[in-house]
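Input/output pair, single chain:
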Amino acid sequence: MIKNFFALCFLFLSFQLFSQNVDLIKSTIRLSNDEELSTYVARAKSNGLSLNDAEELANVNGASIVEIQKLRKLWNNQSVSSTNTNIFSDSINSSIGSTQITKIIPLISNRFGASFFENDNISEVPQMFVATPTDYRLGPGDELIINLYGASENTYSVQISRNGTIKFDRIAPVYLSGLSIKSAKNRLKNSLSKIYAGLLSNDKLSKVDIDLSLKKARSVIINITGHVTAPGTYTVSGFSSILNALYAAGGPNETGSYRNIKLLRNGKVNTTIDLYDYFISGKYPSVFLRDQDVILVEAYKKQVNIKSGFKTTGLFEIKEQEKLSDLIKFSGGFLSDSYKDKIFINRINLYSRSLREVNSENFEKSELKDGDLISAKTVKNFVGNTVSVEGAVYLPGLYDLSNLNTVKDLIESSKGTTPDAITKALIFRTNNGVQDELISIDLKNKKDLQQLLMEGDNLFIESSSNLNSNDQIIVEGEVNAPNRFNYKKGMTVRDALIMASGFNSFANKSNVILIRNISDENLEVKSKSFVLSFDKNYNSVDNIKMLPNDIISVRRKSYLKESQSFKVEGEVAIPGYYSIEKDNYSIKDAFLDHIELLKTSSFNGIYVLRDDVKIPIKFSRDNTNKLSPISNLELKSEDIIYVPVNDNTIFITGGVQKETIIVYDKSISFKNAVFSAGGYIENADVKRSYIEYQNGLKKSVQNFIFFKSYPKVEPGSKIVIPLKSADNRKKISLAEIVGYTTSLVSIVAILKSF
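Output:
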């Protein structure tokens, strides 16, 4: 508590100290670029501040909402330049005129046509690998290639100057600005004829032909304004169309018109574009842009919403003269399962809404109003004038009632009953939409077969196999596949044993018990047992027929147990598997009977591996200097006795300067070994340090008041220094708090300078 109080005092003191120099910091920050500004945020992050901490301290220092937003952008490595918060940009380099265009992508909208401007796979850069359109007008900055061929051959690569001309040696400048490619070609032909007389000659031998092509289109500056996602001034290729420019600006916004886009040239309306012509009919608005053109996107005047029943749903913009039939065309038409003879319109009437129904004959006459909600109903899956048959027939399903009248007709249409069909059938009849009547039919009775059918009738013929009870028998004990099996009439005990894949190697074939439930006889004894004997071919003099719910229990041979073994691995004379010869067979027995160590064996590292857990084994020497395990561990099947090789190294890992392996020496201690690895690092948890010996035994450092007792180091040991968890780390010191405050005040000063 006291520590927190002093930390708070230091925090406010540091704010006052740094606030005196805020003006000086601001004046420095104003001259900083984005890279330098990011270093201030990086410094705060390196000092351990989180974004929430930075925002809280910025609020305390009087930062505004705008400054907090800039802080977030700086923190997330974003640009602090002013942008529309509803858009993001994707910079794309145009190959035309080396112009860089920034494509603006709008938020996802349900307006018809908006998906075109949200598609990342579309480029606003026009295609240059196509013939130059005949209506493209040349202007200053366009680069041309002029090819002369025939009696004289030459190639000129020229650029139209700011004055709109190109220059050749020995002739006057040729003015081409504003001309189409065709007109420019004719003018060049006349001008260059002063140098190449063959251009105007009709003589095949002296004739010279001319070809003109656009090498690189000029860049033009245009303005896009009105209801668009990102209005502003754009530099685009002169080869760009209005559609290219609109795509770069993100297209019309939520209130912008797709159908009344105006191109203003010299202050007058040059062209009006309806983008629905392109979205629906593919008519491309190929009007090319000129310098200082203005694209004006006005607000929509009428918009309706298709809710359901059509191939395309969403918001559609409607012109004054357009009808409901036009809207159906825009949407792609009705869905396959829609009711197509009527459309429902939910319309605003002053203070409320009303529902109108429009029949198909009035689609071309019905006008639409702003805010209309349009929908078509979905046809249900109900099939009229039908009857159905289910169950034990060859072709179950629906049938046309007009082609049959009676139960007999329906059965014949379904190709008759299957062999397992019973002679009784049921008709489920529907009245007023509810299946509430049941008619019993005897398929052997001719009168019943003449029962007249009604629309919606369902004839059900049951199979005899479904009526049989699912009686079972059980085979358990020493068989290869014990299980429950379906009871079959005539089944014997031998049959059941074969179904269970026969006896296993532990089965006592002369002691097979059949248990039968006799509780239905109302006797004091509820079950009865039969002892049966079988030979190797599963023959028996008492091969009893089974009854439902019988249990066969195959007993194990008396005293028989599964064979058990252990494995010996490592530095021993004869590794391999050995038998656990008797009950209470121990590690001492194993060494006495089978295991002989080598000179390279590490007797201090021997362990038993059981279920991936090491069990350390200690040894002593008798009078003959022979090794004998002190532990009397009883071995279990699949135990592994592992004898490692002598290891004269020590491995130090965890919270040390560097993981290290050193050579063992009798004089080396725990602390000496740690120092050999560079000593402890800052967040090492010394109190929880421990040593792991070669046989898996672990010993930890013992702490008593101010004293520590370190375990003995032995060959092959591993010293482990754990790291402190986040919860155990020290709290932030006062010096760190002052450092955080310094960085934060700098950030706030940066934000205030923008």
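The domain at 386-467 is CATH 3.10.560.10 (Outer membrane lipoprotein wza fold like). The radius of gyration is 47 Å.
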